[in-house]
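Data availability (excerpt). The following record was deposited with the supplementary files.
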Amino acid sequence: MTNRFPRRPGAAAIVLATTMAVLAAGCATPYREPVSDPPDAHYDGIVQIAAREPVAPGERQAALDVFIVHGMCHHDADWALGWIDRLAHALGAPANHLRPPDPQPPNEIKAYRAEIALGDRMLRVHALVWSGLTRPLKEQLCYDERKKTESCDPQTMTLAPLEYPYSRARLNSRFKDELMNECVSDALIYQGQARGDMLRAMQGALLESRAIAAPAALRQGLSAARASLANEAGLVVIASSLGSKMVFDAIIDLESRRGDDGDAGRRLHARTRQIFLAANQIPLLGLADQRLPGLAGSDAPRATSDAADTPFPADPLEFLFGQRSRALFERAANDNPGVVAFSDPNDVLSYPLRGYYRARKVEPSYPLVDVIVSNAPTVLGLFENPARAHGGYPSNDDVLARIACGDRGWGGCR
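Predicted structure:
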């Protein structure tokens, strides 16, 4: 016999519905409207910066190089192409993707390039994927992963792809596999003996990217450093977490050299127009470049890279773009590149920068703005999805609008 009455929801369904209703009611986005520090700060986006770029000698139109560099954790072509497409969408112009890099060899930086036309200005976008550098070392931790991460693909591993044999709680497993083994390991590798190798690779990627703008006839037979000197265009850096330390350490290291390398490093430095940071980790990573205070021998020379004889400063931004920059390039104080640092307070791997200076009772000697954002809702005031909190900056419309159009967001482009 057919039951004419609808079935009553079971207890599990009622509990689930009630839970979802409570969670929905308890979700909030603390920084639905981004908050700037200082609150009245003004800064330009890529549109305004590109509009000021002059036409370089021998060029038909003004150009601006935009470098996008990721931080710790595995990143690949999807990340690079996604960043370029989202940036193009924010700029209101299509991206013309250029030939992708050769996948072989895998253990080198891969540069994904595109051109975005902004009226009579051309953006040359370079998304640099450096995950292949650290992957061979991170394989040594794969035996300890319950659910294998991207760095532990059995099809590409050179070590034995062992299964983890013990019981581990699901959440603990995710933290161990994805946070420690896949992400934090990158920072440890960089701060250790591989730092010089990683910096040389980053320097090569930066200089090659700048060199390709030079006429082919001029590049013939020249090193990337020498060819890059023909590129007069300004540049904007968009860097995340560990990537910000890598990029500026690489420039500092280049500047310390003689000959074409030193000249190329100073050209990168001098042509930097604006810096956008996401999930900034300089306060954390800078701890590794300091001696313990107040101990005997603490004034001895700091450890150096084997790529140069220059110690790395704990604060590469102040070192590059502070008093030294003004003296080196005879700049006025307001001519220094500005730094805009986006940070979600629930991102456990991000540190605002202005508080970093206040705690040390100093003022940054370069223009600095912290922009506090929310990359995802907070549930019941207890937590925000950690993956979205740290990795959600490229998909956050507020972040993209300010990178593209400056402090007024979309309004800055109108």
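Summary of structural features: Residues 1-8, 18-25, 303-309 have pLDDT under 50 and may be disordered.
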